[in-house]
């Protein structure tokens, strides 16, 4: 959630954490963009009237980075013109202040349901002739199914969704195995090694080691996702 007013961020946090969501905060558009480039988020709640980068500008920049990320504009600007402008600039929904917490949660749930729906569509990577089907948890290369374990699939899917984005070992451990996992961090390296061997058997090698940092998914094309 992006809002320059700390009391508003606290109010949003109360409503949404009570509804079961994990929340990150940004006090302005610049901080939000930095966070979005560094982490994976499922949705953005965006204020319009902020110092520095406005919500309008932030929305445009976010769309350039994450074309499919749901954006809910939350603002005191109530005119039809503002609402039309916000939706035209890429927002998926527009809610005015003051608002009812129940409506806020309902809007968030609706946007996330629609977003999750797009996640079930096959993900095609033309340069590798690879298809990833998240709903069935299937991967094929050159039309040939690739036998992966559940963990190997989860790692591949996480990396492939954010090509060129480096994930640290600690981040992979947290996202794939969960915060409660008490195993060794070398578990990540072991699963990456096995996954790479299976991919190389299919003559593809998209997972790169970023020395001293972690791993990333590399596609040598300008239009990897189609």
Automatic annotation (TrEMBL):
InterPro entries: CheY-like_superfamily, OmpR/PhoB-type_DNA-bd, Sig_transdc_resp-reg_C-effctor, Sig_transdc_resp-reg_receiver, WalR-like, WH-like_DNA-bd_sf. Residues 122-219 bind DNA. GO terms for cellular component: cytosol; protein-DNA complex. It is found in: Cytoplasm. GO terms for biological process: regulation of DNA-templated transcription. The keyword Transcription applies. PROSITE patterns: OMPR_PHOB, RESPONSE_REGULATORY. Keywords: DNA-binding, Phosphoprotein, Transcription, Transcription regulation, Two-component regulatory system. Residues 122-219 form the OmpR/PhoB-type domain. Gene3D superfamilies: 3.40.50.2300, 6.10.250.690, Winged helix-like DNA-binding domain superfamily/Winged helix DNA-binding domain. Residues 1-112 form the Response regulatory domain. It comes from the Bacteria. The modification 4-aspartylphosphate is found at residue 47. GO terms for molecular function: phosphorelay response regulator activity; transcription cis-regulatory region binding. This is DNA-binding response regulator. It comes from Ferroacidibacillus organovorans. The lineage of its organism: Bacteria, Bacillati, Bacillota, Bacilli, Bacillales.
């Amino acid at each position: 959630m992006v809002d320059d007013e700390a009391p508003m961020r606290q109010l949003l946090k109360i409503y949404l954490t009570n509804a079961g969501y994990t929340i990150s905060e940004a006090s302005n558009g610049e901080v939000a963009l930095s966070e979005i480039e560094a982490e994976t988020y499922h949705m953005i709640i965006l204020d319009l009237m902020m110092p520095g980068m406005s919500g309008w500008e932030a929305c445009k920049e976010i769309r350039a980075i994450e074309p499919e990320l749901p954006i809910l504009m939350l603002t005191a600007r109530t005119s039809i013109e503002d609402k039309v402008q916000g939706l035209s600039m890429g927002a998926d929904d527009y809610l005015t202040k003051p608002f009812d917490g129940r409506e806020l949660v309902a809007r968030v749930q609706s946007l996330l349901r629609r977003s999750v729906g797009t996640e079930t569509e096959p993900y095609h990577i033309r340069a590798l002739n690879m298809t990833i089907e998240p709903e069935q948890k299937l991967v094929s290369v050159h039309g040939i199914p690739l036998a992966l374990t559940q963990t190997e699939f989860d790692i591949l899917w996480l990396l492939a969704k954010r090509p060129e984005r480096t994930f640290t070992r600690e981040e992979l451990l947290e996202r794939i195995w969960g915060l409660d996992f008490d195993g060794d961090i070398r578990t990540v390296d072991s699963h990456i090694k096995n996954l790479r061997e299976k991919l190389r058997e299919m003559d593809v090698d998209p997972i790169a080691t970023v020395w001293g940092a972690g791993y990333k998914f590399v596609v040598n094309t300008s239009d990897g996702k189609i």
